[in-house]
User: What shape does this take?
Amino acid sequence: MLQKISDSVTKGSFGTIWGLRTAQMLPNRLGYFVAARVGEIIARRAESPVVKAIKLNQWVARGGNLSSEDLNRHVRGVLHFQSRALFETFRYMDRPDRLGSLVTFSEKCRQVMVDQIHSTRGLVLLLPHLCGFDLGGFALAQHGYEFLTLSYPNPPSGYQYQNEIRRKHGMEMMPLSFEALKAAIQRLSSGGTILTGLDRPNPEGGYAPLFFGRPAPLPVAHIRLALKTNSVVRIIAMVAGTEKNYVVDVSDEIPMQHYADPHEEVILNSERTLQMAEKFINLNPDRWAMFFPVWPEAAAELPNN
Assistant: This one.
């Protein structure tokens, strides 16, 4: 069974296939055991795109000076935490009573979300892909916080299915498109909230702001939205609480600044948000669940296994 689960995980979107089939059937102890073993099996597949991407991202995020042994250990760490988070996501997304004890909110996050209800300025929440981010989205929705999530454009079937799960649990989802941008502008202009990821690479985007000190082809549509609507920008992230729970936290406001050169304006404001995202990732890099290579050129630097 473990081999079949790990095969499904490494094909298509990470975890959707096996998660729904198994998480709600297994008792907790067995579920956590299966999740840990799946993570270990995937980590041993050195040639899989998932493992290669994690290696590259961990190499750069940790300063580019790891030994092969340390790099492999961090790959195992990422897959361990993500497998555990996926099990918890699929097991508890239909149990608001249990989700409430698994996911809590920092006092700052709680205050920001309450204040936003009465605000006339829009709020742009930018999400680094730290383990458990879907749990955080479900928890926000269950607490009645309203927000529009802009997801990856033109999603493949696995991601479409994930988006349907998110919609089912109270999250308003729109894959990024011209229509989605129009909806986001309207939402922000009326004092509403949007949420979107900021660390999944977008090679066709034409921008490469610095991220962990290196140019990275990352999305910038959220920067344009914030500038156009004079919205507040913050990072929102899942951080580790105790061993068995997560905390949804937010950053201070990241002021957007205007420049004469439009390209420079987007790049410099994007780098401000990414610097803040780095701080959250650096709290525990083994929880940075980004499974696409942010810096593909760094492959030439990796130590030999």
Q: What stands out?
A: The first strand starts at residue 103 and ends at 105. Residues 1-14 have pLDDT under 50 and may be disordered. DSSP finds twelve helices and nine strands in the chain. The CA atoms of residues 19 and 248 lie 23 Å apart.
